Amino acid sequence: MHASLLITHVRLPDGIPTDIAVAGGWIEEIGPNLRRGADVLREDGEGAMVLPGFVEGHTHLDKTNWGMPWYRNEVGSRLVDRIENERSWRAGTGHDAGAQSLALARAFLAAGTTRLRTHVDIDTDAGLRHLNGVLATREALSDVMEIQIVAFPQSGMRRRPGTDALLGDALKEGADVLGALDPALIDQDPVASLDTTFEIANHHQKPIDIHLHEPGEIGAFTFNLLLDRVKALGMQGRVVVSHAFCLGMLADRERDVLLARIADLDVALLTTAPSSVPVPALRACIEAGVTLFAGNDGIRDTWTPFGTPDMLERAMLVGMRYDLRRDEDLALAFDCVSTLGARACGFNDYGLHEGARADLVLVDAETLAQAVVSRPVRKLVVTHGKIVARHGVASI
């Protein structure tokens, strides 16, 4: 049961002082000098800025070594090297996706993330073992965090026969979204790979989120094949292309033609804003009407030593990658880990308005830009009307 809550003396991102009344887990009223009965729990914000709960649009909870001893990374530079190394290491160590996903999810929550999309490895070695662990985490946190699970063929689909059936099983067991990976360079048959992916998604009536690392012209070719299928099957608004490095490699004219198709078919793009590879151009995406949002990707796993479960940090990295310096531009970076992420992933009832789900984060910052740049400790985190963290420490 959700208690009524009145948060007083806070400021909206535009600086306007306000109070926020919460009832039944939802924002009931926003305005100055609100009054409620004595039975309502009160929280004095002491002038803090209130933000909507953050959205992690792309991570891998099942892979993380968060809180574990340091993993010494000596893997080769090729994508296939990392895939094979990870699969071997997880099998050899008995890596516990349940315990590790719970540890990282709780760290996300303490830092203000209340909605999260995670990709979970499905392959013929592990079967649904990693999925079962993350399903347990989702159940354990169901009252305080909304977690979407992507059934992801990290080792490829067609190159490992039987993976397609396992992906279907994963969707039947509770995965929310169907994943895919580099149909040309990993599966080495983009037409057949995409046909199978869309057939599975259509059969189970699930959206798609595909990792597309493929570069330049190869990536553009695959992207157009994907868009053909989005149009043919009426899957507008139900497909995300993660990474989409090819869009950062194409000539402007070719890129803009592709962006126009992407916008027309309402396909969203996910970026981690990496510094080491080309990325989709933020301004070009905005001008074309394409939704571009952000996520961490893996955090402290066999792929990368980097990453933290702090979406303000990811917003800062977006700002740095796209050279966003003006305060109004840094607000765009925050949109990538809030409103745009919610829109792209389909997290409903999101935002700072009456009738939205009461997911609130209080930070000591003068402006939204300062919050992104300085990443202050979260003073208070509320999810669905329940206080779940204070001063960066989760209470659940």
From TrEMBL:
Residues 44-388 form the Amidohydrolase domain. Coiled coil: none annotated. It comes from Caballeronia mineralivorans PML1(12). GO terms for molecular function: hydrolase activity, acting on carbon-nitrogen (but not peptide) bonds, in cyclic amidines. CDD domains: Bact_CD. NCBIfam families: PRK05985.1 (NF004636). PANTHER family: BLL3847 PROTEIN (PTHR32027:SF9), CYTOSINE DEAMINASE (PTHR32027). Pfam families: Amidohydro_3. Gene3D superfamilies: Metal-dependent hydrolases (3.20.20.140), Urease, subunit C, domain 1 (2.30.40.10). This is Cytosine deaminase. It comes from the Bacteria.
